[in-house]
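worker-03 picked up job from queue 'complexes'. Input manifest follows; two sequence lines, order preserved.
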Amino acid sequence: MMATISPIERAVSEPPRIRRLLIGLALVFLTLFLFLPLAAVFYEALRKGLGVYFAAIVDPDALAAIRLTLLCAVIAVPLNLVFGIAAAWAVAKFEFHSKSVLITLIDLPFAVSPVIAGLIYVLLFGAQGWLGPWLAAHDIKILFAVPGIVLATVFVTFPFIARELIPLMQEQGIQEEEAALVLGASGWQTFWRITLPNIKWGLLYGVVLCTARAMGEFGAVSVVSGHIRGATNTLPLQVEILYNEYQFAAAFAVASLLTVLALVMLAVKSLIEWQARQTRRAALAMKGEF
Amino acid sequence: MQFRLKQRSVLPGFNLALGYTLLYMGLIVLIPLSAAFIKTTDLSWTEFWTIVTTPRVLASYQLTFGASFIAAMINTSAGLIIAWVLVRYSFPGKRLVDAMVDLPFALPTAVAGIALTALYAGNGWIGGVLALIGIKIAFTPLGVIVALVFISMPFVIRTVQPVLEDLEAEVEEAAACLGATRWQTFRWIIFPALRPALLTGFTLAFARCIGEYGSVIFIAGNLPMVSEITPLLIVTKLEQYDYRGATAIAVVMLVISFMLLLLINLLQWWSRRRHAA
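worker-03 finished. Artifact:
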């Protein structure tokens, strides 16, 4: 074994002893803080048997929570998708003044605590808020109702798709679009035929991230939801309610649904990265042939 | 502030794209955020200052910032080792580990909170072992640190990994040829190249930690003055319909978060410049 390592390799790498130690340290840390918590979700969910597990999931309140969570994602993701593409088009394809200010502003929701994201909507739409009296007069309910939950979700997931697309489109430059336009394509044709195919993997990844966060948001949604069972409870809030009522197995059963969702997201992400690598490799091979 | 084009472009859609971006951002982010700042103008300076410096609030800052700092430090050290191992070595299951590192970003914080509580409570798998040597984690400030370590784990790993991948092997070979030991090469060649990424990752993790709510409230025990984080205090005040109090504390947090965001941007600019040089 030792004989296969050349002197230069030994000089620019660590002795096997150190390698094993570092790999061991990394794995112990990840086990304590990542893998065991993951295992604990499924262990606790199934501890009382499959009967309790499925009963918790087909409970009417849980089903209502699933529907509301899906609704939030179905509204928030397309809204932020259109915004992400528009913002990335402006930032990546043009040079304009105050561009760095715009990029910083897009990041703002990342810097804001989810609790504060909920609070600002309470200040806007609450009974004592700016729009509260007007909304009450017109019998429109936003706070402690579905629109408030959707708005809070949109706020929290606002930067995800734009953040994925901006660096990607900046790297790709504008030559291909310029060529298409010079050859007579219209603006929309250029976008659909040139830009969109180029950014599809990054776009898909942004959508995946945005969906995961939209379905899993807890802090912001908890502030604006009012916790009305069967009406304004999303899945994460349902987990909290069951947990606080000491229905641990049921809480972990609902939590396991969200965990499976998270694992699917990670699998999709790995797949997308693998795809992107394949495309890059194919492009490099093409270049090599010519 | 003016968003004017610096040079003409043949590409269409600048006005439409930028206009829509600004309109949507204004409606969703800027107007609602300004509501918090405008709400605090209901208060005089002294009232504001009294609210944000009561002993209970000060204790919550201490816990929030202290625990966030410790968690970000832990993740910076562990993140460097994990990124190093993932880039430089091969071991069975490496691809799986690499994919799983992002789990804290994908897993809802409430789920993380109850899972960590089950694990680190006195009757849990890890908490049970630690209880034998007299260490309590769940329902103490240590629990807050554990939750924050979990939710901010990927930041340092994901900022250091690409930099480590791009490091040129020639530099290390040159150092070795000139007689440097492996440790000297790491200390004087590799580590300085990683420093901007480590700092960025640390700041990102720290910024994420101070705002965290969902995972912490399950494991912390939430005792006022002992294990109550600032975001929880905001929620408590909201539930008591003390909107002014909640908003005053929120504004303090917002100002600190914005300063961190600026710092992150500066750090990234710095590391890009180093990268280009």
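worker-03 released lock.
The two ends of chain B are 31 Å apart (CA to CA).
The mean pLDDT of chain B is 91.
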